[in-house]
Amino acid sequence: MQMTYLEAIADALRVEMRRDERVFMIGEDIGTYGGAFKLTKGFLDEFGPSRIIDAPISEAAIIGASIGAALNGMRPVAEMQFMDFVTNGFNQIVTVAGTTAYRWAIPVPMVVRGPSGGGVGANPFHSRNSEAWFVHATGIKVVCPAFPDDAKGLMMASIRDNDPVVFYEHKGLYRKIKGDVPEGEYIVPLGKARVVRQGSDVSVICYGSAVHMALAAAEAVAAEGINVEVVDIRTLVPFDEETVLASVRKTGRAVVAHEAVLTGGFGGEIAARIADKAFSYLDAPVKRVAAFDAPTPFAPTLEQAVLPNSDIIANTIRATCSF
Amino acid sequence: MQMTYLEAIADALRVEMRRDERVFMIGEDIGTYGGAFKLTKGFLDEFGPSRIIDAPISEAAIIGASIGAALNGMRPVAEMQFMDFVTNGFNQIVTVAGTTAYRWAIPVPMVVRGPSGGGVGANPFHSRNSEAWFVHATGIKVVCPAFPDDAKGLMMASIRDNDPVVFYEHKGLYRKIKGDVPEGEYIVPLGKARVVRQGSDVSVICYGSAVHMALAAAEAVAAEGINVEVVDIRTLVPFDEETVLASVRKTGRAVVAHEAVLTGGFGGEIAARIADKAFSYLDAPVKRVAAFDAPTPFAPTLEQAVLPNSDIIANTIRATCSF
Amino acid sequence: MLRYMIMAREFDTAMLRLYRQGKAFGGVYSQLGNEAVSVGSALALDRTKDVLFPMHRNIGGHFVFGQTLDQLMLNHLARQGSQMRGTDGTGHYADPALRIYGNVSHLGAMIPVAAGFSLADKLRGVTTVSMTYIGDGGAQVGEVHEALNFASVHKIPLILIIENNQYAYSTPNSMEFACERLSDRAVGYGMAGATIDGTDVELVYTTCSEAVDHARKGLGPTLIETVTMRMRGHAEHDDFSYVPKELLEEWSAKDPVERYIDRLIDDGVVTREETDELRASILNDMIASIDRALEHPWPAAEEGLKNVFMSTAGEGH
Amino acid sequence: MLRYMIMAREFDTAMLRLYRQGKAFGGVYSQLGNEAVSVGSALALDRTKDVLFPMHRNIGGHFVFGQTLDQLMLNHLARQGSQMRGTDGTGHYADPALRIYGNVSHLGAMIPVAAGFSLADKLRGVTTVSMTYIGDGGAQVGEVHEALNFASVHKIPLILIIENNQYAYSTPNSMEFACERLSDRAVGYGMAGATIDGTDVELVYTTCSEAVDHARKGLGPTLIETVTMRMRGHAEHDDFSYVPKELLEEWSAKDPVERYIDRLIDDGVVTREETDELRASILNDMIASIDRALEHPWPAAEEGLKNVFMSTAGEGH
Ligand SMILES: Cc1ncc(C[n+]2csc(CCOP(=O)(O)OP(=O)(O)O)c2C)c(N)n1
Ligand SMILES: Cc1ncc(C[n+]2csc(CCOP(=O)(O)OP(=O)(O)O)c2C)c(N)n1
Ligand SMILES: [Mg+2]
Ligand SMILES: [Mg+2]
């Protein structure tokens, strides 16, 4: 069935809520209003106010209460109205949720989800790509889907997972990206990358919005005879190192791309692993494409200057292939 | 003058507070009690309660008030009793402090400092090495000294800097590491790495407690004829890429080490940059040594299993050199 | 006061017009219903000494603090020449010369900052009152608690106005808090507190003036709840169908601007003709100013790559 | 009740002895002065239904909830066989079978979690009272505000006891908050609140029992301030020289354990000989249990590398 990225996520939530009474949602304006992006439109009517909980503006309480409910056998899905506001509940995630399995061996099956990313003319406080923080927090899984089917399948897997998951939905993809999405139950396991385009000359390793940039770049250089493989890692934790290394060992060249700022981003981790574990296969240095190290600015001219795009990826591919 | 790492930091604070009226300190139990580690012992007597401010247990307020005071021309130094608690003031640092220069072009000259790191039998909530979060936040400088003289010189530079600085003091070094420290004003500029041991066979790039592990490892392998260069980067933001690359271009081999957990750590960023920009000079893959991806556990047996140490670095050096 | 009230109102009219023309960029947050709070509170300050930390429905205060129309519009629309170089828009800018420090999107985050601003002057022996704002929803953020408690313990001259306009986005008061009045929280911080009708600009002004006096005497912070109604959606994309029509009708009888004008007319201070004329001329100025702002191009792309840091080293500023 | 009071007290004696022998590992946080709060509050719960989220000075509650001496000591000392496998120590463990969920170091962080625990049962139509604690210092953390407000809006059966023992580490009440009573904050959340003498175990018990009733009736959370004195340093490394001697003397006259024993003796319920004997035998048991725990080795190193995650996929638990 054709669905937008947003519809696919809503579908996953609906299917899981119908299937499993332990699943409930909590967030700001998710009930009557149906969420700032109308993702939960109709949910209140279907599931009622005890499973679609409108909370006060208190991200720490929303996440903390979700942790407590998870400790008590539920499977909460907490919405951040914008993922940027997770900074207000940061302590709950990294201090409590991320250490509980290790300390207590009690599962904390919960999902913190929300719209992230830039390119839509929001502002520095509605555009952040913060996934790398949680990668470095221990005990937190991190998911960044690029396609509607993955968004659905990964959401269902995240809800069923026994660990806390931070689920990044790219708001720029919400309504822009449509695709065929299996109906009903559909699971995409966490920790499996997806080769979204087969190629032999160079591997672009990417996730989230950067996958679409990479695909466009691959098309652009295809005319020049460069055959690009695009690997969408889909989940940052767990990280499917095998698939990434297999691709790079095959092509001998790698470009790593994400929308988050360059320095300290997950791209460094990926590049470091490739450069280490595929060392003898590399015909060129591993290059990275990412946002300039700045907040995401408001004016479109500035935002374009800061964020990565398919042209930059294409040029990086060209440079890598002619190294 | 011989000083411990802790005394050197206290000295820097004292010198700056005497020199510049705009500098004041704020934190929990820093006044009468002199701080949990007695770092500010005597400060209240010397500077009085309006410059040594005992605050309620409110990390967000402590950091936020520091930002406000900095906007109004002061140079606050905010203490986190343990750096772990910075998670409670995380939003203030990344959302407000780190974006103000960019948005408003108004300086926010402030330092958030405190004891970090493990190896002292604390627990998962008193041992975290969280520096990589702020590296990926934009607009925040990050400092991690390893020696008393650097601790002093970098603290003075941080206080005088016009940007917000998060200053990581390794609590395991506080009283363990002594060294000669210049008296009075002594500045170590932010953004300059220090080659703490000259060598020709392999470069160990590290910071904080890992520098001491690296030096011990270098001694251990010296007997085997491996001549190790140890580069202490000292500040993560700004990062002195030049010095690091120069060292690796010279030795042709690199090991990157830090005490923070491996995945998503700053080591990935360093390794990625080396593997990219010194690609043609590398005779072996860039290896990383870091903590196992887990919280820092309490029992000493477990803590030793999780944290890196000089033996692991020595073995990694050996492997790298025989690649 | 009249002029500022009308400016706050007509700013809304002008922005709404822009939104309808599809020319606005970013969220358009209406001031409608909140003019008295914004104007009355800012007027209670001494703008040569005190400092304003406004929120998204406090454009009235910007005018009170001397912001020119042209500068405001450039900032709002993030055009070349704006004080933020396009890095941010709407009311998020700071104008240190005018003693205005805008907000960030994260609700509550600027309250400890406002407290710290006044703290700095307190350490210098100077009393600078910081006036800042939060909504009935934003008041639930943890940082608000930390900031108020901190300010009260340290007797910081901070005034926090909780603008209770019944809704936080779509969430009604009943789902945001369970106390009767949000100023009840003042007791828990040992600070002064009051709940007042936020549609009466003179009442807002006198209540805030008392709070300013209190702060100047070194008696510490005050928490003021101003009760109003958000007369439009959260932002213009929101049709606010979740708000009962009767509620809007009830409150429109208390329109802060009309009410104040009526009072002035009753008191013989102005005539309807004069106020109508003032409104029309202010609206005209606003539209002209917006048009001028829109002629400015977007800021140059390279601005986006500048100023993430102020310096790599150096002293003083 | 007597037995638990004495257990709480003698646990302290035993741990202090261990500390003096140089055998303790990690911070030793004394319960001295807080026994009545910990024991009286936990006894007010139904331990088959309710749930305890204790803090660092609430070991009494662990005993009330059925924790065995041996298990407690293993946990505290982080030896092989502890429920946390050595990953953490002191009172930070959870024992789901006993309905005990320990704290984390970050003050206040577990209060929203406790609220969420009860919320889960509320969604199932079951009333599970969560009892949790915070200090006079920790109460200033933002998460406490968010949790209380959230619990009150959603009428969650949460009881938060603010253990006001006059000091937060070295910081006196006057530097932590400016309100008269910390329970004054209850009004600001629209919840029930009370401030009581925390040295009187029967009073603590009855006050908490009322709060439990209130919660069971679906009337929502309660905030109880228990006023006590921390009779030792923050932890044993702290000589608490910042506490005026007179204050300690004044409060030692109100020693919660002695006071309760005296009352029971006055009422003819027990004799001094009996309580002395009980104390000695409990202390003996504790020392023996500690000795047994210390015979356990540290947990095996590989435990440190396990269980960062529960699973990579899978359903239910
Ligand atoms: C910490 C945080 N959480 C969520 C949001 C998203 N958000 C923006 S405005 C808003 C509603 C604010 O309501 P209120 O505080 O009552 O102010 P009003 O808009 O009614 O003036 C929300 C939820 C935010 N900006 N910050
Ligand atoms: C968020 C946070 N900040 C700081 C600390 C460090 N710390 C641990 S206990 C303590 C004092 C606690 O005082 P109080 O809350 O009154 O509890 P008490 O120890 O007196 O029972 C402090 C500052 C912490 N654990 N968590
Ligand atoms: Mg509102
Ligand atoms: Mg206390």
Bound molecules: thiamine diphosphate, magnesium ion
Let me know the average pLDDT of chain A.
98
SS field, number of helical segments of chain A: 11
Give the neighbour order of strands across the main sheet of chain A. Answer: 3-2-4-5-7-6-12
What is the radius of gyration of chain C?
19 Å
Global morphology of chain C: globular
| SS-derived structural category of chain A | alpha/beta
**Mean pLDDT across every amino acid position of chain C:** 95
User: For this structure, what is the CATH class of the largest domain in chain A?
Assistant: Alpha Beta
Task: Describe what this molecule looks like in 3D.
The complex is a heterotetramer, with two copies of chain A (323 residues) and two copies of chain C (317 residues). Chain A is α/β, with parallel strands linked by helices. Helix content of chain A is 38%, strand content 20%. Chain A is built from eleven helices and 14 strands. In chain A, helix 4 links the parallel strand 4 and strand 5 (111-116). Chain A is globular, with a radius of gyration of 19 Å. With 317 residues, chain C is an alpha/beta fold. Chain C contains twelve helices and nine strands. Chain C has a five-stranded parallel β-sheet with strand order 1-4-5-9-8, sandwiched between helices. Chain C has a two-stranded antiparallel ribbon with strand order 2-3. In chain C, 43% of the residues lie in helices and 11% in strands. The structure holds thiamine diphosphate (2 copies) and magnesium ion (2 copies). One magnesium ion binds at residues 135-137, 165, 167-168, 230 of chain C.
